[in-house]
Write a structure and sequence with these properties.
149 residues; mainly alpha; 10 helices
């Protein structure tokens, strides 16, 4: 889904692959691999892309059909990400092991997400957001509302 959305955004904005690769400071082949879903786009690059198109992670990752217009550049807050992952899991009385199994990772990896040692990939964040039915933009601290548009 992410590859389709980023390609649609690029085409809707009359941009060439090499233009977007340059904006993201990525090699043409690297960007092309993200758009063709051969490789997963790193979270930091996803944020740069969302800022460039002035839209949300939720839209790019297919959690929302609304192409929200974000007026100000948004940053990922890694401290909020780790604390929000922990808070939401604890609010729902879930273990790291249970959630890790639900999204296909070991408990130790999920623990590293909550402690801020490892940054989840965009697809792992998507799986977490889908499981909790919340906004990815909320998880990464770009917005303060849990609910997806």
């Amino acid at each position: 889904m992410i590859g389709i959305k980023i390609k649609e955004l690029r085409l809707d904005n009359d941009k060439k692959i090499k233009e977007i690769a340059k904006v993201l400071n990525a090699k043409l082949t690297t960007y092309s691999s993200w758009e063709n879903m051969q490789n997963e786009m790193p979270l930091i690059k996803l944020n740069e892309l969302a800022n460039y198109y002035k839209t949300s992670f939720d839209y790019i990752l297919g959690l929302s059909n609304f192409h929200d217009v974000i007026k100000e550049k948004q940053e990922i807050d890694l401290k909020k990400l780790s604390s929000r992952l922990s808070e939401i899991r604890k609010e729902r009385n879930l273990t790291q092991s249970f959630l890790g199994k639900k999204i296909g990772i070991p408990q130790t990896t999920y623990s590293q997400y909550e402690r801020g040692i490892t940054i989840p990939t965009s697809l792992k964040l998507l799986a977490i957001a889908e499981y909790y039915n919340i906004s990815i933009d909320y998880l990464v601290g770009r917005i303060n509302t849990k609910k997806r548009p």
